[in-house]
Specification:
A zinc finger (C4-type) spans 56-71. It is built from seven helices and six strands. It is α/β, with parallel strands linked by helices. The protein folds into three domains: 4-40, Helicase, Ruva Protein, domain 3 (Orthogonal Bundle); 75-168, Dna Topoisomerase Vi A Subunit, Chain: A, domain 2 (3-Layer(aba) Sandwich), CATH 3.40.1360; 171-199, no CATH class. Strands 4-3-5-6 form a four-stranded parallel β-sheet. A two-stranded antiparallel sheet has the order 1-2. The longest helix has 17 residues, at 36-52. The model has no long low-confidence stretch (mean pLDDT 90).
Length: 199
């Protein structure tokens, strides 16, 4: 629709997750209207991120160092590992201030449709971390969708033979939700994970 490089910019922005054609167009025109120094700074940060950021050699979290800040934090509990799909999941858990153990990032979830099996995930590295006997509990915190559930089931089956405590995050109805808007899977999980209050 637009001339050359403008349309190229819109097309590239449209490939970002969560950015549709209209949002891509708005961002492109925002960049065109922005101060050239701001745009150069933005572009420089994007290039720097790609050149400096890599995955922690221990847990697989994103970092600019060899190990991430969580893996180098001596105050963390080494006996518990929380397994997540992506680095962004760590941020969500850290915001709760409820977990003080270590993490392990799988780098995705099992998805036969996308051609992702257990061998494409960082499961071998997880097993390596469990060898020395320091870890006594593994918490599985995969997404509550089909791929996340398949990954959790695979991990539970595999880890249950190692003599570790294996737990999974509870899932169900969010606070403030109306029952009529809950999907069947969420409502079913809420019933499965119900807790006894009395008697």
């Amino acid at each position: 629709m637009y001339d050359g490089v403008i349309q190229d910019l819109i097309d590239e922005l449209g490939q970002l997750p969560g950015i549709g054609p209209k949002s891509a167009q708005r961002i492109a025109f925002h960049l065109l209207d922005a101060d050239p120094d701001d745009v150069k700074r933005f572009a420089a940060v994007m290039v720097e991120v790609k050149s400096k950021v890599h995955f922690c050699e221990v847990c697989g979290n994103v970092t600019v160092d060899v190990q991430c800040r969580i893996c180098t934090d001596a105050r963390r509990d080494d006996s518990i590992i929380c397994v997540v799909e992506e680095s962004k999941d760590i941020i969500a858990i850290e915001r709760t201030r409820e977990f003080r153990g270590r993490y392990h990032v799988l780098g995705g979830a099992i998805s036969p449709i996308a051609g992702i099996g257990p061998d494409q995930l960082r499961i071998r590295e997880l097993l390596g971390r469990l060898q020395d006997g320091t870890v006594t509990e593994v918490i599985i915190a995969t997404d509550p969708n089909l791929e996340g559930e398949a990954t959790a089931t695979y991990l539970i089956r595999m880890l249950s033979t190692l003599g570790l405590k294996v737990s999974k995050l509870a899932s169900g109805l969010p606070v403030g939700a109306d029952l009529e808007y809950a999907d069947e899977l969420t409502l079913g999980r809420a019933f499965e994970g119900r807790t006894s209050i009395a008697g």
